[in-house]
Amino acid sequence: MMGYVYIMTNNNNSVLYTGVTSELKQRMNQHKLKIHHNSFSARYNLCKLVYYESLESIGDAIKREKQIKSGSRNKKIDLINGMNPEWNDLSVLPGQVRSYKVVITGIKKGLQAFFIISVSSLHPCSEWHEELLSVFPSI
Asked: Is the pTM of this model over 0.90?
């Protein structure tokens, strides 16, 4: 099973978080949707994937994570700048359209309305994203 080590940051690029996972896309969604409300990444609004490495096994990824975590902040910044000098969110492809399926249950029993919200410029760190999550916490 492949493993990934990654670094995330917030909108201001002021906080860095190093993590490890076997499912990078799924893990990024968990961070961005703040599935774990009391986690470090949720508290500091870490929503940009700025660096990652794929390794042959999760064990190798855990070893690499420990190496990165033991290094200084400047070493982490050097890693990021080497791969992603503009600190773009690597989990979002340029021009990608995000679609959210929202299900609202009506007053009448069993009545449901389905809406698709497609926004091309909705960044997961944006106020609009936060507002959508507060109204529709399941997206």
From this structure: no
